[in-house]
Amino acid sequence: MIILVLNCGSSSVKYSLFSMGHEEKRLIRGSIDRAGLDRAGLANAGSAWVHQGLMGEYQADVRDYSHAVSMLLETLARSDHSILPSLDCIDAVGHRVVHGSDRFSSSVKIDDVVMNFLRDNLHIAPLHNPSNLAGIESIARLLPNVPQVAVFDTAFHQTLPPHAYLYALPYELCEKHHIRRYGFHGISHSFIMQEAARILNRPAGKLRLITCHLGNGSSIAAIKNGASVDTTMGFTPLEGLAMGTRCGDLDPAIVLFLKDRAGMDPAEISDLLNKKSGMAGLSGYSSDMREILKAVYIDGRSGTLNVAHPHHERSKLALNIYIYRVKKYIGAYASALGGVDAIVFTGGIGQNLSAVQEEACAGLEFMGAEIGVARDLGDGCCELSRPNSAVRVLTIPTDEELMIARDTFRILHTAGGFRRHGL
Question: What are the residue ranges spanned by the domains of the chain?
Answer without folding.
Answer: 8-89, 202-400
